[in-house]
Model the fold of this input.
Amino acid sequence: MIESAKSQCNFPLETSIPQASLESILCTQELQRRRSRPPDYEKENRALVALVSTLANSPGTILQTLAGTILEITESDSAGLSLLTRDDDGKRFYWPAIAGMWNPHVGGGTPRNFGPCGDVLDRNCTLLFTHFERRYPYLIPVMPPAEECLLVPFYVGGKAVGTIWAIMHSDRHKFDAEDERVMGSLGQFASSAYQAVVSIDDLKFQVAEREKAETELRKLTDGLETKVLVRTEELEQRNSQLAEARARLAEEKLALERSEAFLAEAQHLSSTGSFCWRPSTGEIRWSEQLYRIFEIEQGVPVTLELVGSRIHPEDISILNDMNERTRAAVSDFEYDYRLLMPDHSVKHVHALAHGSRDADGQLEYIGAVQDVTQRRASEEALARARSELAHVTRVMSLSTLTASIAHEVSQPLSGMVTNASTCLRMLSSDPPNVEGARETARRTIRDGNRASDVITRLRALLGKKDATIEVIDLNDAVREVIALSLSELQSNRVILRHQLASDLPPVAGDRVQLQQVILNLLRNASDAMNTVDDRPRELLITTERDEGDRARLSVKDAGVGLDPQSMDKLFEAFYTTKNDGMGIGLSVCRSIIEKHRGLIWATQNDGPGATFSFSLPCRTDTKVQ
Done:
């Protein structure tokens, strides 16, 4: 019906020249100024029930029934529908159904780009025309002429498909606001009717095609049975495929439901909730777990004010910063902040979100919030334990070292003092006992040598031991140290980056000792930025090839830098720039690197901070001293 219908108007539509402006034939504003009849809802409901009944029982006549209903309810002289043609991309309107005085013109129509119906779709609103033939001369032969015409557009799936209209051929009745309201309601029904007619037309086309195919099959005489069997097998295969597709769809639906259940349970176990936020509308949606984290009743509408009521007063600036970033259309954000619960307990949460644009171009954030209170408590407890262990270790090491030195050195020193006193007495006697003094001097020299031997043995103990030599990938060693110290660095707000050379050759040495050097340099760099609050605490580790077939590792910080006058003392034993330092770390690092036939040094950065570097030979036959 819809595909095949075309305008049957015999007038030269495309060559018509407008005789008047569009505004001169519009009187839409009169609808509100005219005295309006009271609504007859009972009549309107009866008409809608009749339309629905026709749509259900005789859909092929629904458009004509709709035209008759418009004619009856608006008490007009003519009424009908104008539909865009489908076989030429909607270049024309045609009239599939007309009731009243214009009924003989069924099948006629108007061009899309020059006509009343096109004006209605262009303006996307109801329009009231008066004597539209003054602008569109091709309508002059259409009798009887129109005094007034009320047109209402209707759409299917957001796409314009046509208009419904009512015409008065005399001034016996003027359209009013009630007519506009009723026509709007009927326009909505026209959308449903249009879809039904299109479906029927499509079905008829399919039936016609099927009948055509069956006719052609009946004409075949050779191999008919074989072709039927082949066709049957194809249909059975398609039915089987359809059944399989339905089964897969059911399985996918079940899998989706299970996945949603798994996600909800995973969020519960990991104390992670998800959210969706549209800043332009203020709409915020939370998962069930996020309601639990914020301890807010499920289903309560979420607003920024409600979120702010749970944020710790000292962290409310974070929420303000987040709002500023969304106004600037920042695509991603990540924050750590605290929640103050109604019972005055405090929760630590970590939030991150990614922004994207929806189909309308509006910014939308999808994110997650994790309750990290227990993890934060564990990290703080671990940090305290590490600090206490380090303190105890330093005290024990210093105590042991002091006791050892005192015990080993005190005996020869006591002997030297005793021998010196005896020597003085022998020399003071009259006559002096020169031979006895000479003997006590020899014993003094002996005890001095004993004290010297003690110091030599302690240096040998602290400075030399057998090392485990192996081929080492310096990049792997760096990654292992990073994994070990990452938590501590993050707790100090250090931003760690690394640039590891992909073509770095291996070095030979003791893996544990070299990792001790790297770890010490990392901790020193972190400590150097403890007081930095006016810039990011950035720490960069790099590896690269160095001159002379060597591999270089550098640790660059953004801390307070180095005192130029102390550069020569940095690697000396017991020299430190820290208030609580022992001055041993860098000295031990130098000792380890030099035993590996390497070099270690420090340089001041062009900007803030300093860089500590060491280089090692790349030859696999390197021997540790």
Remarks:
- The chain has five domains: 23-203, 233-262, 271-371, 377-463, 470-617.
